[in-house]
Amino acid sequence: MSEKLVQVNNLCVDYVTFDGKVRAVNNVSFHINKGEILGLAGESGCGKSTIAYSLMRLHRPPALISEGEILFEGEDVLQMDEGRLRDFRWKDTSMVFQSAMNCLNPVKTIEYQFWDIFDAHGVVKTREESVEKAKELLKIVDIPVDRLFDYPHQFSGGMRQRVVIALALALKPKLLIMDEPTTALDVVVQREILQKVYELKETYGFSILFITHDLSLMVELCDRIGIMYSGQLVELAPSKIILQQPKHPYSHGLGDSFPTLKGELVEMKGIKGTPLDLKNVPAGCRFAPRCFNASEQCHNTAPILMKAGEGRFVSCHNQLAVQE
Question: Residue limits of the ABC transporter domain (predicted)?
Answer without folding.
Answer: 6-255
